[in-house]
Amino acid sequence: MADNFNFELVSPERLLLSEQVSEVVIPATDGEMTVMAHHAPTMTTIKPGVVTVKLASGQTSKYVVFGGFADIVPTGCTLLAESAVPMSEINRDTLLKRIETAKTELAAADTHEHKNRIEQHLAELTHLNGIVVPV
Predict the structure, then answer these.
(1) Which helix (H) or strand (E) holds 18?
(2) Residue range 42-59: average pLDDT?
(3) Domain 5-87 belongs to what architecture?
(4) Closest by Cα among 68, 64, 62, 63 to 81
């Protein structure tokens, strides 16, 4: 049986989760990352995606995050999200609004670097739209 550790998922609006968990899968910028107890200390940025949490009770819950960063230590993990909602609360309209906002920002981008960053974010949102709310 896997050891449990403390996991907190926080957005500017609210604390979404603070529980003992056995495993958390986060959408790190460099790729999906599974965090378990005794993980090496790590700090990573988060891209838009789905966070899957396996609670100590064995239940699994999912949350959609829109960027942020995770601070991982051997005894726990804190994910500070730019924005996050339980998967059950997300819908196509919400994602489409974020995609449209990104397209507007892209049209107004004034530097190559800014344009590249927005294009990457737009690609992540579009991919997320297909995962969270399949056609």
Answers:
(1) strand 15-28
(2) 94
(3) Sandwich (2.60)
(4) 68
